[in-house]
Amino acid sequence: MTLAHDVAGSGPTVLLLHSTACDRRMWDPQVPALVDAGCRVVRSDMRGYGDSPVPDGPYNNAEDVIELLDLLGAEEFALVGSSGGGRVALEIAARWPRRVTSLVLLCTALAGHEPSAELQAFGEREDALLEAGDVTGATDLNVDTLVGPHADQAAREQVREMQRHAFEVQLAAVEEFPQLRPEFDLADITAPTLVISGDHDLPDFRQIAVRLSKELADARHLQLDWAGHLPSLERPEVVNPLLLDFLRETHAGGGRGRQG
After folding, report:
1. CA-based, 20 to 30 A from 87: which of 43, 94, 203, 236?
2. Closest C-alpha to 202, from 148, 138, 163
3. The domain 5-249 belongs to what CATH superfamily?
4. Is the separation of the CB atoms in 129 and 137 below 8 Å?
């Protein structure tokens, strides 16, 4: 299947991968800024989120995204991933390194990360609420835990709407299919990388950011003292310039790809 997606603008391709608390609508504040900067912006919904249906068999998110980019004729692209979308972005950058010109990771998850007691308790509480049929409670838990203190009410309500929709779509599925998780090596990532974390986020995501800044060949870590888990929604007026500056610096928005 082809993932639900939007394309806007023209120029070098920038792909936006959403958090698993959201869907592609989370990037509403970023799309106009990227288009104005001369980028072709692609944003897609992973399976079971937004307008993409739940899986109908075993699947792999990274391969779904590559299939979409092939369909759109994007041989090279910059990747911007938030949380679970960052985990997918890391897999893509490791498995198809020659295609990724630059990589931005916002409070990213990481395959194989051992969850802290705090993150584990959050997941157990979410599971318990969903098993009890309390979708509203599970949605509120995610909003209260993930959205930072500087987000306005409109951003909080947007996250609430996206998260509740994802829960409803996934809970309605007749059958659950596994995601295929092929092995990959972070050492294969060659793209210059900006890793962003927030002081008000769960500690795991700051730990992951520090680890990636040390393990990736060309990475820097920026910690935002005001941010929760979704800084691009919480303060887009701060995040957008950071994003644009990095993309210009790494030539993802300047029409010049890496050689070799």
Report:
1. 236
2. 148
3. Alpha/Beta hydrolase fold, catalytic domain (3.40.50.1820)
4. yes
